[in-house]
Amino acid sequence: MQFAQPFTQMNSLITTFEIIWAIATACSFSTFSRVIALANKPLGKDAFLLQGDESQKLDVYDGIDLTSGVENVIRKLQEIDGI
User: Fold this and answer.
1) Which one, of 5, 25, 26, lies nearest residue 15 by Cα?
2) Residue 42 falls within a domain, yes or no?
3) CB of 6 closer than 8 Å to CB of 12
4) Per-residue confidence at 12, pLDDT binned at 50, 70, 90?
């Protein structure tokens, strides 16, 4: 996994590492009972370095290209329980 690759779809300087860090941080707070991570490329829970209850809060869904058109994105998101 490459952490320094920039997330450039929106001309942003956000890196993959920063996204993973933000999701992992959300899992560590009691504010959220569930955190859903969407990824275009395969991404496992192990990339988030979570332990115990934090790991149980995270659901990772990969293969969802948010740039593939509204109808396709809606169809993919409808397959996710709770959305």
Assistant:
1) 5
2) yes
3) yes
4) low
pTM (2 d.p.): 0.66
11 within some domain: no
Residue 60 lies in domain: 16-78
DSSP string, 55-76: HHHEEEEES--TTS-HHHHHHH
Helical H runs in 2-80? 16-28, 53-57, 70-78
CA–CA dist 48, 77 (Å, integer):
22
The count of other CB atoms within 10 Å of the CB of residue 81 is 8
For the stretch 23-32, contacts whose Cβ atoms lie closer than 8 Å and that sit 24 or more positions apart, written own/partner, are 23/48, 23/58, 24/48, 24/49, 24/50, 24/54, 27/54, 27/55, 27/57, 27/58, 28/54, 32/57
